[in-house]
Structure of Nuclease EXOG, mitochondrial:
Amino acid sequence: MHILSLQGIMLLLSVIQQTKGGDRMPLGLQVCHQGAREGLVGKARPCAPGEAQGQVTPGGACVSWPQGSDWLSGFRGAHALRRKAGAAGKMVVKSFASRFRGSRRFLSGFVAGAVVGAAGAGLTAVQFFRSRDAEPALAVKEPDGSSEKALLEQFGFPLTGTETRCYTNHALSYDQSKRVPRWVLEHISKSKITGDADRKHCKFKPDPNIPPTFSAFNEDYVGSGWSRGHMAPAGNNKFSSKAMAETFYLSNIVPQNFDNNAGYWNRIEMYCRELTERFEDVWIVSGPLTLPQTGSDGKKNVSYQVIGKDNVAVPSHLYKVILARRSPESAEPLALGAFVVPNEAIGFQPQLSEFQVSLRDLEKLSGLMFFPHLDRTSDIRNICEVDTCKLLDFREFTLYLSTRKIEGARSVLRLEKVMENLRSAGIEPDEYFMTRYKKKLEELRALEQSEVLERKPS
């Protein structure tokens, strides 16, 4: 089926408009009509000098017209119509030209019908091409973000177990793969480090909040050569038996060198408690590190020992961050210090300041940001400049340990052994030690005397 182009239809309408004034057909259509009869519509040529207008020869129809005349557009439109529409266009033009003189009313009806038909066909074609162009868009439509996320999350994302876990007086983040804490945060004050809570009632045990699959067990430490080292120490929780007992959960424990645990690390913990004499609030973050070591080939490697059947990771270093505040009302700047110590025996010579590092360097080493709500643009002082950062020396520390042993003595013989060991170390007891010693000696002698009386027959 041939469809008359809209351009051709508009041309025919213009022709009708041009001929309303009379019956004469414009020369362009006369030539087109005559050429159609001879099969020469496509062979128009300029008229030679003296040649009659419209004369048809084998070379084509003679046409002569002034530039821009109305019948020029008629001829060009008819010629274009025939060329575009092919045989059907030729028949339409031929029929139209032959009947034009007879009935312009018929022509008007014909053209109107052609316009309506062409318009309908055009609309159909537009709808077709629009629908055709829309189909690929449906095929490449971007997926909805929310539905894609819901699909990914349908069975849940992997869980690391590093979420914050809160206890009575400490909070921590646990490393399920290494079976040790990543960090442990605690707050201490003068009131919290005094009280009746006693560690003799506490036992190391797995944290009931940690799935057994990821927990360490006491058996992992037995015979390993490593002690169970507190990150939040029991001595910081004398105010509450529950708070102290929770520090014995293995989620708060790392494999620690025995001498380090009982010695240098213990002295750092004692210094933190001493700070409560000068600061109302002290926050402490402690944890393990596995730092790279440079080998003989100059290459850095991270390697660490694991203990027990649960492969509890032994850290190469331990860190502690201390933040102290004089009082909530004080305008004095906060005092802060960060320290990293090797997980090995450390003597009494090294000072705490020798292990001090910048907070930024520790954050790079640990992958943690400490005290994220702290305004670091404010004036924060170095705690070793504001305070002493001085740990107990050998004499002070030995007297401290000996005094604690006085409290644990259960017989006069054991108490006297404490005094003997102290003097064997070349240390003379101070007044505080002697006061506690005499009081304990009286208690034990009275207890032994009562036991003797009970054994006597009545």
User: Anything to note?
Assistant: The first helix runs from residue 6 to 18. The two ends are 137 Å apart (CA to CA).
